[in-house]
Specification:
The complex is a heterotrimer of chains A (390), B (213) and C (227). Chain A has 390 residues and is of the alpha+beta class. Chain A is built from 15 helices and eight strands. Chain A has one domain: Cytochrome-c3 Hydrogenase, chain B (Orthogonal Bundle), CATH 1.10.645. The chains are: A alpha+beta (390), B alpha+beta (213), C alpha/beta (227).
Chain lengths: 390, 213, 227
């Protein structure tokens, strides 16, 4: 029996998912995993064709959380889209803010004061740490470690979110960055608090690693599963920890030197096999590198203004033109592409969502694996449906 | 040895488990609603309108300029502008809102209204227990429900409120100085006119509108 | 990295008759782009990817843009022969008259590709393609065979803008459901009449509320008349 899942006429070539033939015994089973499945991180569906336990075909189905963010932004002023960017990847609202602010600053050629640049780096790296910690927590949850590692991650995340709340006013929907700087200044007391949190982070990562890295069950479930070749990863536009886990040395912080990242010393961890375990390990190591960036940034942060004095809150009208700005968000390359026609609203506002594009290769990674591994592989991609569907 | 990693992880869990009995710091949750964590100073939930004097209606700082209504991303503010004018905090005659509604079921607490307001009239509240069973009426806050005194503002955001007060005082001082200068020139002109006509009547005092307290 | 002019020259050497134009960007970002003709798009894309100097192996972003039909009115000086009576004699006189002419510049759908190089760590190189119009000639060659990164994003552009990518292996709607008609990101998209009561309606919402109320009233009247 051939499955009725709509699938295209496959174009033969190295960048297409391979065709797996069923072994001919028994019938194929079609399963709709999702949209309400505990492992899908929200409302996401995978139409899976199974030959026994083996995945023969997998089609992701998107759009359950689609709200046409880009259309809303075309009808709103540049500033009014800033709080909406918080809601894309709601785990990392501060990096979303930064990417959007960076795109607008590229469009109008605005400079950002020193202190604001440091603040942006500090907040982005804290965001990265809490995102990676929770992602690993969710990944272990999907392997059946119900709760414990996730709660350890959330305990640490809570401290970081408390800091965000004290600074920006909100735990998750920070809406903090503005074109040409940041909204409110950080107080000395809060900076000390941040230093205290950062001082405690290496201990937490050690604890996390003692709990997980050498755990035999985790290794058995992750190693050799969901392999992604570097050639395919590059060709499919994969970015972030997933790309680096496949061994491709591409970190936008190092490549574009946006902000002030060229001032900090940090390494880019790379994977060797491109499997789920490498993605786990790359995230752990990236947390450690983020801690070193944070230590440097918190040591060097200068006093001074946090907003470009030329920036305007009301009546912001960029000259006609277009710009693409991108940053290394925790999930990958987050870009904003803006076309201005000289009016207060953008003519075109496009989000390059890393979560969505990283799912391009979901089928490639899952084919031939067992259905239980699909859940783990999907968890290792690290997506947030608010960003996938926009 | 197989199982070594698992044992290591178990030891970590045991340490945390035992630790939660010893160290108070590890107990990160509180028993809400009996026990509450005070909201952070910068915390923001929904907007409110600041008023200065005893009477909320007379003391509203809002001049119904409708900038917040226009800039609000989800468009949850609704303002009707008055026909007549009343004096504002510097004593200038200004319009006032006859209707100021915020639909907090639509509001997303982004505080862009606060940022764009040139009159320091709208600020963010920290009150979050607003659940109601009336979706339309109960979540549509009108002028009276939104009006909170400046003292309340000082209570919830002390640092920010003092900054705002300082800024307003400065503006008021400037406005006063300007009014005084205007008064002086008016008096001088009147005096000049008086000497020219050599009329015995004293010049009429050109008092600025309001401006004294 | 090469400038757009140099890239254009390189393309013209490698793919003869490629028909590449430079679209300049007036913004300070200075991100100029190259407009590629449909006929040679795949060869040009392959050249950009495989050329050892450019090595644009990473397709980052695919964006659809909609440009509406533009009505342009321009003043034209027209010379025409008029019969006039000069000094009692009928004569053929040439006269120049100002005339306003209106013409419609057809709109188009555009797809913008942002390319980067992982190998050389440079970018972005921006290429764009345009359809002939917005209604019946909306085809465009798909670049998915060259860069797999375009797969989902081209589906999205197809879904939201209605650009038909020929050669795309799996061209289905991505975000909207399959039965959905129309393309919501187009500038002239009309939202369905599914207004819900909102207490603070204004601007577009108020407009929609009014339209909805009118439609509802008309429907009720129609029903009454039918009875």
């Amino acid at each position: 029996m051939t499955p009725s899942i709509a699938h295209p006429d496959r174009v033969e070539g190295w960048n297409r998912p391979p065709i797996i033939e069923p072994d001919g015994e028994g019938e194929l089973l079609e399963v709709a995993m999702g949209p309400h499945h505990p492992s899908t991180h929200g409302v996401f569906r995978m139409d899976v064709a199974l030959d026994g336990e083996r995945v023969i075909r997998l089609k992701p189905v998107f759009g359950y959380l689609h709200r046409n963010h880009e259309k809303i932004a075309e009808g709103a002023s540049y500033l009014a889209s800033m709080p909406y960017t918080d809601r894309l990847d709601y785990f990392c609202s501060l990096t979303n803010n930064w990417a959007y602010a960076l795109a607008v600053e590229t469009l109008v050629g605005q400079q950002v004061p020193e202190r604001a640049e440091y603040l942006r780096v500090i907040l982005a790296e804290l965001t990265r740490i809490q995102n990676h910690a929770s992602t690993i927590g969710f990944l272990t949850q999907e392997m059946g470690a119900s709760g414990t590692p996730l709660m350890y991650a959330f305990r640490e995340r809570e401290k970081i979110l408390d800091l965000f709340e004290q600074l920006t006013g909100s735990r998750m929907m920070c809406n903090y960055m503005r074109f040409g700087g940041c909204r409110v200044d950080i107080s000395a007391a809060l900076l000390d608090e941040a230093r205290k949190i950062v001082a405690g982070l290496p201990g937490f990562i050690d604890e996390f690693e003692a709990l997980l890295s050498t755990n035999e069950i985790l290794m058995a479930r992750c190693q050799g599963i969901g392999k992604l070749k570097p050639e395919l990863a590059i060709n499919a536009g994969i970015s972030g920890p997933m790309l680096r886990a496949s061994g491709v040395d591409y970190d936008i912080r190092k490549v574009d030197h946006y902000g002030i990242y060229d001032r900090f010393k940090f390494r880019v961890p790379l994977g060797d096999h491109g499997d789920v375990y490498d993605r786990y390990m790359v995230r752990v190591l990236e947390m450690r590198e983020s801690v070193t960036i944070l230590e440097q940034a918190l040591k060097d942060i200068p006093a001074g203004p946090i907003m470009d004095p030329k920036s305007k809150i009301r009546g912001f009208r960029p000259k006609p033109g277009e710009a693409y700005g991108r940053i290394e968000a925790p999930k990958g390359e987050l870009g904003f592409y803006l076309i201005s026609d000289g009016t207060p609203n953008p003519y075109r506002y496009r989000v390059r969502p890393p979560s969505l594009i990283n799912l391009t290769v979901l089928e490639d990674m899952c084919l031939g694996e067992s259905v239980a591994d699909v859940v783990v592989i999907f968890g290792s991609v690290d997506i947030v449906l608010g960003e996938v569907d926009r | 040895m197989l199982g070594e990693g698992i044992l290591k992880g178990m030891a970590e869990t045991a340490k945390n488990f035992a630790g939660s009995f010893v160290s108070k710091e590890r107990l990160t949750t509180v028993e809400y609603p009996e026990e509450r964590i005070a909201p952070a100073e910068n915390a923001r939930v929904f907007p409110f309108l600041v008023y200065d004097t005893e009477n909320w209606e007379a003391g509203l700082r809002c001049v119904a300029c409708q900038i917040c209504e226009k800039e609000c991303p989800p468009k949850c503010i609704y303002i009707d502008k008055s026909k007549d004018k009343k004096p504002d905090y510097v004593g200038k005659q200004q319009f006032y809102p006859t209707r100021f509604d915020i639909d907090i079921s639509v509001c997303m607490s982004c505080q862009i209204c606060v940022e764009v307001c040139p009159f320091e009239a709208i600020k963010m509240d920290t009150q979050f227990e607003l659940a109601t069973d009336d979706r339309f009426g109960g979540l549509l806050l009108d002028r009276e429900q939104l009006a909170k005194s400046n003292e309340y503002y000082h209570e919830i955001h002390p640092t920010e409120a003092s900054e705002v007060d300082a800024r307003l005082a400065e503006e008021k001082a400037k406005a006063d100085a300007k009014a005084k200068a205007a008064q002086a020139t008016a008096a001088k002109a009147a005096a000049d006119a008086a000497t020219k006509t050599a009329a015995p009547a004293s010049p009429t005092q050109a008092k600025p509108e309001g401006g004294q307290d | 990295m090469k400038t757009v002019e140099e890239i254009k020259a390189a393309i013209e050497v490698a793919v003869p008759g490629a028909g590449v134009e430079i679209v300049s960007n007036p913004s300070v970002s200075g991100q100029h782009s190259l407009l590629i003709a449909h006929s040679h798009a795949l060869q040009v894309a392959q050249f950009l990817r495989d050329d050892s100097e450019l090595a644009l192996d990473y397709l980052s972003n695919v964006t659809g843009v909609d440009y509406l039909d533009k009505e342009i009115s321009e003043k034209v000086k027209v010379t025409r022969t008029v019969t006039k009576t000069v000094d009692g004699v009928e004569q053929q006189v040439e006269e120049t008259v100002d005339e306003t002419r209106k013409r419609v510049e057809p709109g188009y759908l555009e797809t913008v590709y942002h390319l980067f190089s992982v190998a050389k760590k440079h970018g972005p190189v921006i290429i764009r393609m345009r359809t002939a119009n917005r209604t019946d000639q909306v085809e465009m060659p798909s670049l998915t065979p060259i860069w797999r990164g375009a797969e989902l994003q081209e589906r999205e552009v197809f879904d939201l803008y209605g650009v038909v990518f020929t050669g795309h292996p799996d061209l289905r709607r991505l975000l909207m459901w399959d039965e959905f008609k129309d393309h919501p990101m187009r500038k002239d998209y009309v939202e369905p009449d599914d207004f819900e009561y909102e207490p603070t309606a204004h601007d577009q919402v108020l407009e929609r509320a009014k339209q909805h109320a009118a439609a509802e009233k008309a429907a009720i009247q129609e029903g009454a008349e039918a009875r």
